[in-house]
Amino acid sequence: MTMLRIAVPPAIDPACLAGFDPHAPVIALSGLTMGTQWQVRLAHPSGVHILGAPSTEALGAQIQARLDRMERTLSHWDGQSRLMRFNHALPGTWCRMPGDLAQVLAHGLAVARASQGAFDPAIGRLTDAWSLGPNRHAAPPDVATLRAARAASGWQRLVMAEGWLAQPGGLWLDLSAIAKGHAADAVADMLADLGLRHALVEVGGECTGRGMRPDGDPWWVDVESPPGTTLAPLRVALHQMGMATSGRYLGDHTLDPASGQPVFGALAATVLHAHCALADAWASALLVSPFPAAQALAEQHDLAVRLVCATGQEWLSPALRTMLE
């Protein structure tokens, strides 16, 4: 029998005990966003009302409204989103960034710098060339098309100043590799503002766990293993942290910003981080990186990471091994 492995954070955050109610019922809510499904499980303490009423329907509607606002800001499928308005802006135009866009870009640029461009939020021209957005092309891009798309891309071309973003000309953002992680964080933050500090939020497979379950356990989440592998099961106590996985087996169409080509390196990368948005971006960066480089990045930045290589073997970073011990 294969033994279940348990990963837990080194300490319980005392702040998360606020609002803890061992008798609170756990409610489940779900809906659709960003072309995928969202799900929330939360402890609903007595006396906490949403929109003036203790209605789960009202809470579900409020979560959906928050996600809808994010999608109208961050989507590269919606031609009227704030992101697409920036993409189509004239050279030299300064565009005002709403809060979600500013926060996602701040996280994305931090990982772009730390990963030396393995994660890049400004490769929209490349994803468009590969038909990974609303524009469909009859054939894969040729060498000339990729060369032009790469020349028009790159996080180094982004200039941000006090909530404004400059369009240098022809630069397209694509935040699909970080938006779902940000959405999970944002919904968890919204729930906390409503007095609901004990919840598990999942958006398209990216998860954020806050506080604890009413029974005193953390929110347990299993790390998915690629099909055909025989890895020992890994279960994570998602306490005050997020978890994201990128993998070729998941249908992720991850591109290497350096070559503009689809990734054929690691099979899967799972990252645990205090911010699910950063876990999401790092998972993409590590999937893009050659296996030794991904290992070095995880160790250098003290990331809790599981990598699965194409042969089905796994590597656990020192930070994740500490959680297992």
From TrEMBL:
- Catalytic activity from the UniProt record: L-threonyl-[protein] + FAD = FMN-L-threonyl-[protein] + AMP + H(+)
Q: Which Pfam families match?
A: ApbE
A GO molecular-function term, please?
Answer: transferase activity
Q: Which cofactor does it need?
A: Mg(2+)
Q: Which residues cross the membrane?
A: none
**Superkingdom, taxonomy of origin:** Bacteria
Q: Which UniProt keywords apply?
A: FAD, Flavoprotein, Magnesium, Metal-binding, Transferase
Tell me if Transferase is a UniProt keyword of this record.
yes
Q: What is its EC number?
A: 2.7.1.180
Q: Which InterPro entries match?
A: ApbE (IPR024932), ApbE-like_sf (IPR003374)
Which Gene3D superfamilies does the UniProt entry name for this protein?
Answer: ApbE-like domains (3.10.520.10)
List the PANTHER family: FAD:PROTEIN FMN TRANSFERASE, THIAMINE BIOSYNTHESIS LIPOPROTEIN APBE
User: Which family, according to the similarity comment?
Assistant: Belongs to the ApbE family.
Task: State the name under which the record lists this protein.
Answer: FAD:protein FMN transferase
Q: Which organism is it from?
A: Novosphingobium pokkalii
